[in-house]
Here is the input.
Amino acid sequence: MDSSSDVRRTAEPAAKKGGWLRSVITVAIVDIGAPLAAYSALRSAGLTAVTALVLSGVFPAVSVIFGAIRHRRLEVVGALVLAGIAVGAVLGLVFQSPRPVMAEGSVPTVVFAVGCLASLRGRPLMFGFAMEFIGPDSAKGREMTDLWQYDGYRHVWRVITAAWGAAFLLEAALRVVVIYTASADTALAVSKVTPWVFVGVMSAATVAYGSYRKRKGERMAAAGAPAGASQVRPPSPETAQAGSAPSPEGGLVSWGVRRPAPRRSSGSRTRSPLPSSARAARGRWSAVRRTFRPGPASTGASGRGATGSRVS
Here is the structure.
């Protein structure tokens, strides 16, 4: 047994869990806690609502810039966040109203939602995000790439992406309504918290939908494949223990997707599903029947067939 591979397989989930936890903590501090605390402190110091909002937006902007420097590239979402903060700050200072400053968070949300819905004609946006999070070179990433060829698997990701797009269009609309109807303090708290509430709800819904597809696949595997389609099986424990990449067949069962029945070309014969011993016995019996079968001419009085063999 390769102990180093076992260590890597054990360390990878822990690293992913640690990275996810760090991301949640960063969002809670930089994107929610720090802006709210800064706005409250600046308002208590006597600054106007517009000035306090503009200065409190420095924390998310610095976080995006720091991430771009660390990874040596600026993500599309980060660029949208920076653009929204800049536009909101300019509009707020020009019109001396806190509403445009708070509404800037709806800009990346709307762009993300429209991107999700527009990507349904090709590769869904949430599938691309999942591949980036998992890693295209990982075992799970290679499995997802192999499964993409099946219509049922693509349908799953289209449903997930459409749900995310519709949900965040709704979130952006609700945020704008709250910003222009509630007080500045209430609107700021809602605009900072609501997006992440939607992220949590949609993440839980995505996990629940994936579990539903997995249970459906297990029921399909237990009931057996219907006529015209073959039900594939998950990889054997020996294959999984060997550390090889999971095959598409295992993912098909997990997602409740049936592999289409193979097409037969004209003139091709379908191979018998019987075991080789049964096929051999059937072939010998057919040979015996051909040997003693009477020919087209009627048997004579001698009782001999066309082959000359005595028919008992």
Strands lie at 229-230, 259-260.
